[in-house]
Known about the structure:
The protein is mainly α. It contains 20 helices and four strands.
Amino acid sequence: MNKxxxxxxxxxxxxxxxxxxxxxxxxIFFDEGIYIRRAINFLETGNPQESYxxxxxxxxxxxxxxxxxxxxxxxxxxxxxxxxxxSLYMVPRIFxxxxxxxxxxxxxxxxxxxxxxxxxxxxxxxxxxLPFTWIFKRILxxxxxxxxxxxxxxxxxxxxxxxxxxxxxxxxxSLLGLAVFTxxxxxxxxxxxxxxxxxxxxxxxxxxxxxxxxxxxxxxxxGNAIMLxxxxxxxxxVLWQSQRSNSIFGIIEFFLxxxxxxxxxxxxxxxxxxxxxxxLLLLWFVPFVVFLSVLGYKQYFHWIMVIPVMCIAAGxxxxxxxxxKKLKKKIISxxxxxxILAFSFFSTTILIINDISDAQFHALSYVLENYDDSYxxxxxPVYSWILEDVYGRKNIPRDYSEILFYPITxxxxxxxxxxxxxxxxxxxxxLQEALDNSVLVKTFEGRVLDFDSRNYPYTNMQANYxxxxxxxxxxxxxx
Length: 479
């Protein structure tokens, strides 16, 4: 009974934080619309490659497409009021919450096998309740690949406990290959997985067995580009992905603002792992952070890959402090751990109960109800896939950036100018000119503006301004 209790509590907490108010918090991020649109394109055409941009491999949109297909998403056509429009993001957001619960389970199992039940219990609870855990509710490739990585690690850990371990090693390599086939930075996890495989039996043949599916599965991506006679374009786009200029120090600063508890306790745990020479945690954490620092994958949500290891390291550190012989009064460590967990859970709860995406659906509803097919709608992917694929609207570019490459010839235009549109104004003068030559007709202000984002835990709102202020602009040439 105690064994079940230690697993059920983290899962219940994870279910609450990741499935409560799935569409209302966080807001709908630009990239989420991209991945849903690509999934729908795959369902409609059977081709996982959308247009000519090779920014990410295909497994992410294949997974999302499978979820949409199983839930008969193509049959949905809700009313155009804001509350009904929210239902269009409900299924994929719930799916992401379920994946986060699976992550919680896998973290528990990994830590239980390697470090013991107490560390597993605490690590999985930290993953479930720390405020930045809300990021796993977004429809992001990093969140989709994470359970693949965790499962790959768990399988190779178990492979060391049985004699006939080849199947587990091959399955682990396949899962890790699928993770890379979802997003390239997942390749850094091969260091920790290969190290576990080698230390289990000290056989190089086991590592080669792991590497075969790990290498072959992602090669389907450039293989598809070759079939389409676009390999040169593939290489150019992959290189572009590695040349973005965000500073790793800026991302660390942002992480500290968003969730200082996770960052400080997690990094203290990594430091403790360094003192203990814990190769599993260090090979999990260090290669990815080095990759993040050297190349251009430097958005705050790229930390998703190392959040589990930070929670694990923090859990091990806190349990070690509690078990230390130097600490004579255990009540002190119990009190510290209880305060961290209670404060984190409270902070997360007061965030996720808020409906801050509301303005996005009011803006979309306004456009649907006031403008017909005679208008070209310039909008982010958050809205464009709904306009085109759900309601069958014509003259809907995939996103507003298309005007940078293809001029809009239609005399009537509508612009959904959200904060992401304004962030992208520097990409080309066409975006600014479109606003300058249009008329502001309606403004929607999101509830995120009701919070002081300088105060913790509402500092998390700084990553939720997509729904802060959305303007509807129109332009009719000749008027």
